[in-house]
Amino acid sequence: xPPIIGPLMATGWDxxxxxxxxxxxxxxxxxxxxxxxxxxxxxxxxxxxxx
Length: 51
Description:
The chain is mostly helical and about 50 residues long. It starts with a helix and ends with a helix.
């Protein structure tokens, strides 16, 4: 199930579960963003060396 729909269904369509799931997605995005930027920077440097 998609991240927001699954918790909604599991709790009998309690709207708070959907809101909490959406908040968790935002938190996860904020936490992972710096790692994606580091990986992107490394890929760009590797492409510049190769080409």
